[in-house]
Q: What sequence folds into this?
């Protein structure tokens, strides 16, 4: 069996919301670096819950206290953590700063032929396609495991990848680990499609038959 795709670390993207926590020996001076603005998890037009975090702008920057605009898009958490640490230390803004970063909006969506279509909030920032499907109640008997769609947006470019979950190659696939805002869609198989088509053809016939029966009964009652 091929090795599981390893050492996955999510990359920060535009519109991500980051929780950045800074501590230092000089506690009072560190307070300013822990005061981000409010960011809307659901987007600018959403009335959804608010999260206190640093929003990565459409230009790929966060507005960070004292340091100003800091490039975040395209970096891993480790890379951004190191950059902030080095800047705070080199500019002598803090003594022995400790920087911690977390995603506040890491989630994936699972749709289609699964038991419970859902949006999965990923607290540990690491989830495989198998785990996401499991949290959605797994693929139903009508789902096509050999042709699962993964929809991913990267810097405004949408990628659609078809994955065969019956193949061992899935474990070494770069799509095995899901990224924030990925959409997994399980297509229905031929049996489900055929059943749906039969239902569409049968329902009008049943309705027509019922209408005819109502008319006949009505006339019998009147007579």
A:
């Amino acid at each position: 069996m091929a090795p599981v795709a390893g050492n996955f670390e999510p990359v920060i993207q535009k519109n991500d919301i980051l929780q950045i926590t800074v501590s230092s020996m000089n506690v009072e001076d560190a307070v300013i670096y822990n005061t981000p603005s409010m960011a809307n998890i659901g987007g600018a037009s959403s009335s959804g819950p608010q999260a206190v975090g640093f929003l990565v702008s459409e230009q790929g920057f966060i507005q960070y206290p004292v340091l100003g605009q800091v490039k975040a898009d395209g970096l891993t958490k480790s890379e951004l953590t190191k950059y902030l640490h080095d800047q705070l230390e080199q500019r002598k803004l803090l003594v022995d700063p400790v920087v911690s970063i977390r995603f506040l909006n890491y989630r994936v969506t699972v749709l289609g032929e699964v038991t419970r279509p859902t949006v999965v909030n990923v607290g540990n920032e690491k989830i495989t396609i198998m785990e996401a499907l499991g949290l959605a109640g797994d693929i139903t008997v009508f789902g096509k495991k050999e042709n699962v769609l993964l929809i991913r947006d990267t810097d405004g470019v949408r990628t659609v990848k078809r994955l065969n979950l019956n193949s061992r190659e899935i474990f070494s696939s770069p799509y095995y680990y899901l990224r924030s805002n990925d959409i997994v869609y399980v297509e229905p198989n031929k049996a489900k499609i055929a059943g749906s088509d039969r239902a569409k053809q049968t329902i009008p016939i049943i309705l027509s038959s019922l209408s005819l029966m109502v008319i006949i009964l009505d006339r019998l009652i009147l007579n």
